Amino acid sequence: xxxxxxxxxxxxxxxxxxxxxxxxxxxxxxxxxxxxxxxxxxxxxxxxxxxxxxxxxxxxxxxxxxxxxxxxxxxxxxxxxxxxxxxxxxxx
Length: 92
Hints:
The protein has helices at residues 2-35, 56-88. It is mostly helical. The relative contact order is 0.13.
């Protein structure tokens, strides 16, 4: 039970940090876009394709998927470590 609590806390921390970094990057990109004063005469900006900001529900589902993915990977690692411990413990 304690392992599940630790995994959930770690996954929540991971999701929150990912969300904070994503929000910071989005704000920085928005500031750069607003700071650009040159007039663009073609449909594409100077640095490549335009990116549309994702809707809040799409971002929330992305962070939820990151949370679940982190839990699955952490659980798989725990299972592999338990298997390794079960195999190696008779030798020590």
